[in-house]
Amino acid sequence: MKKLMVLFILGVVFGIPEFSRGEEKQEEGLAEFTMDEVVVSATKTEEKRKDVPNAVIIMDELDIQESPAKTLGELLANELGIDWRTYGNYGGARQEIRIRGMTSKGTQVFVNGVNINSPSLGKADVGRIPLNSIERIEVVKGSGSLLYGTGAIGGTINIITKRPKRDRMDLKVSGGYGSQGTYLVSAEQGMFVTDEFGYYLTANRHKTNGFRSNSDLTQNDVSLKLVLEKSDALDISLYADYIDRKYGIPGVKPPDGTQPYFIDGTEFYNSESASLLNNGSNDDAHVALRFKGKPAEWLAYNLRGDYTYMENYFYQRYNSDGTGARSWTTNKVFGVEGNIDIKPFKGASVLVGSQYRAYDWENKNVDLDSTGTELPGTKSTTTDDLHTIGTYMEAQYRPSKYVKGLAGIRHERHSQFGTENVPLFGLVLNPFEDTAIKATHGRHFLAPTPNDLFWPKEKYRQGNPDLKPETGWHTDVTLDQGLFDNMLFLTGSYFRWDLDNRIQWTSDPDTYVYSPQNLKGYRADGVEIGMKLGPVYDFTLALDYTYLNAEEEAQEYGRETPTDTKTWNTRRATYSPEHLFRGDLSYAFTQDLTGWLTVRYVGERLWYRNESQGGGYSKTVTYTLDPYWTTDVKLEMRLFDHWLLSGQANNLFNKEYDTYMSTFYGATRPYPASGYPGAGRSVFFSLTYEY
Known about the structure:
CATH architecture: Beta Barrel
Distance between the termini: 47 Å
CATH superfamily: TonB-dependent receptor, beta-barrel domain
Number of helices: 6
Largest sheet: 22 strands, antiparallel, barrel
């Protein structure tokens, strides 16, 4: 079988000049790779892909439309070096992105330049962002702290929403229904009202019952972009969105044989879900006003002010005795940033900028008795204010078409931790027109979040005000190669990163209280290999493979002696798979009917739990999450000129797998380790009208 696969690939590669190149598909605008694609996020200036020293991923509106992915998390998980995580794929599960094995806190996600990572958690829930609002996605891998500050240690994801086009009016209305009582209704419309002023509006309603008890979700969202294009010297845009979500939180799947459990006639858990009462909601809003322009060939500027409001509500009941708590966590963030790009002479540019961000964090909490009634005198409010000021400079110089250098530094002042100086160095070699050899080496840092520092003491959780920020370095070497007029694109990267004082929430095996701790070290090296071929004979094929060797230093309880002491040990990093594979295949059966197939493999992952053995004896136990394959398919048919009918099946073969592990807190001890199950097979059909 392996020999046949090798022969097939060799035949495809060396036979390309004889194959049909799908001219009709290219004329229709299907996406294909070029080395001259423009990237903005990597250097905050417009640069061709071959001029960017980082490894990058670029996706456009067509890539999104063609994918079988239902959410942004699934879409990004199909890309090289990216791992997608949810706590069990239930309706409202947080969809987190990990780049090259970094935690989700190490990936900063932006929508039109506005950071959507939760300040209190440090993570971005990309599942909240509707796909139909996105025009373009830029993923920049490697240290991004030079330009983006704290948290951009594994990479950045910048999502650019749709913008009105001068030459046409856009109108799209879609409705769909699928398994688990899932439905989605969406509408979008954009146009220029005058020669200079235009808008783009999107609105969605999404509802699902979920695939197990208490895994439902209801989401409503709307976004608006207003643009005023006065001239090359002045472009003004205003972006605003609002997202409202309500969802159940089912927790882990209890061990086999678990019976329904009731307290005073109220069912707390069953064989599907560890919690039937826990639930949450989110109210998120973002506003950003941006001015940009290029008043001269040697000068460009970019000014942006933004405001973020995030409120999370969490209702929790404990299975042990029925008590619980309500909490409201509110984040308000005001930010302003400005930079200028100066080109003093041919081949040289200097970017100088400054950024200010102010964070207001508030947590309100009230305890509940065994009936769910608020306990008098237990209300508490915890607040804190943080701010950061970052100033950065990045210089680039290309003395010839064969080589380009980059160097920069950021000085960041954090109100809680003082200052950090963050340098970055980059080099690009272009020995041939469609060849780019890239390298970057940069420092990065991640400050603890308000939740890490200040979470009020409660029954099973508590913050740690003595935490230190994570710091380290990221090195990346990448080769991008286009062949046969870009019909074949090959990319390969070697990367290495390290962190000191990694922050991780861990539990005490005797009290079961979770609190964040600084680990001694966290490091990894790995390889990424990817290729894209086509369209050839109406086929397009993409294959990606990532190898990751990640290790962490952590305190473990002894396994051999009945003591309560801890020792520092080096172990494979928590939840970091050594192997990730993704394959995409598309085929145009006719001019109006196209199919897509996506397969994804995730290798085994390890999880560690400190377990009390009684008599003052505790030990650290290792659990393994099994590797798994998933397969997604999609068919889309154009009806007449303006209608699209599509159907898709996700996890086609109904594979069982777990995404995370945790402890099942049943009514009595012992408390076994259990998994968050991935969703089984689901199908979805939609009908769309386009104008």
